[in-house]
Design goal:
alpha/beta; 3-stranded parallel sheet; 8 helices; elongated
Length: about 260
């Protein structure tokens, strides 16, 4: 029995593209691609560490773009950000389908991997739109608007352009508690940041770190939210459908501090 090859990479998008490069360069037919922090419980396997090299990642992505539409490229990236276990192998199979076609033909949804790509991309897209709607900033004493989120998928790279355009005149941080990193806008560029203070057990900003006006604004927002609510027209089932309960702990209007 020939051992199956496991390609271990650093978890980055460029690292994953380098895995694809290696499968073609070394003619590896049926690899398993996994992140370096994921455990391997399989027998009869050999692991190869994939080094992330920008030039190789660029070559793969350039070739992929020549064969695909912008929509397909966006979907590919969204699916990668889903972080669903084993999604790298689905994307590899999809890439092989793309590279094997001679023209930019119509997408064939009868193919399992292509259908999966479409379905997962829609799920990630919905989460992106929810985060753009549900982020609630709080002004800290150092005049930085800060928000914490815990999305199902790694959507920070997708929501970055929206907030950069919408809040271009103020400094802000959006921190993903689940993944332990955030994005910081300094009025010029957006940077990736790691804030040790936040954790899944300590996801909220302490009141003593907030601006002295922040609590007043939050109280005003809660008063407004309460007054526009019509009790007789409440529909809790529909409300939870449009505003899932898992997001509530990060919403000002669901954490009344009056």
């Amino acid at each position: 029995m020939n051992p199956q090859t496991i390609l271990v990479y650093d978890g980055s998008f460029d690292g994953f593209l380098c895995c694809i490069f290696m499968t073609y360069d070394e003619k590896i037919t049926t690899p398993i691609i996994r992140k370096e922090y994921e455990s391997n419980n399989q027998l009869f396997t050999i692991s190869e560490k994939v080094v992330t090299e920008k030039n190789k990642a660029h070559r793969v992505w350039k070739g992929f773009k020549l064969k695909t539409t912008y929509h397909e490229q966006q979907n590919f990236f969204k699916v990668f950000l889903s972080e669903i276990k084993g999604v790298e192998n689905t994307l590899l199979n999809y890439t092989r389908i793309i590279f094997s076609r001679t023209t930019n033909t119509t997408t064939d949804f009868s193919t399992k991997d292509i259908l999966t790509i479409s379905q997962v991309a829609k799920m990630v897209g919905r989460e992106k739109h929810r985060m753009e709607a549900f982020v609630r900033f709080q002004l800290t004493s150092d005049t930085i608007y800060t928000a914490t989120i815990e999305p199902d998928f790694n959507v920070l790279p997708l929501i970055m352009p929206h907030f950069k355009d919408r809040y271009a005149d103020q400094k802000w941080i959006i921190y993903d508690i689940k993944r332990g990193y955030g994005i910081y806008y300094n009025l010029k560029t957006v940077e990736i940041v790691d804030i040790n203070f936040f954790s899944r057990k300590k996801s909220k900003i302490p009141s003593e770190l907030l601006s002295h006006t922040e609590k007043e604004f939050q109280n005003l927002w809660n008063i407004y939210y309460s007054n526009v609510t019509i009790p007789s027209r409440k529909n809790n089932k529909l409300h939870k459908q449009h505003l899932p309960k898992r997001y509530w702990k990060y919403l000002t209007e669901k954490n009344n501090i009056v």
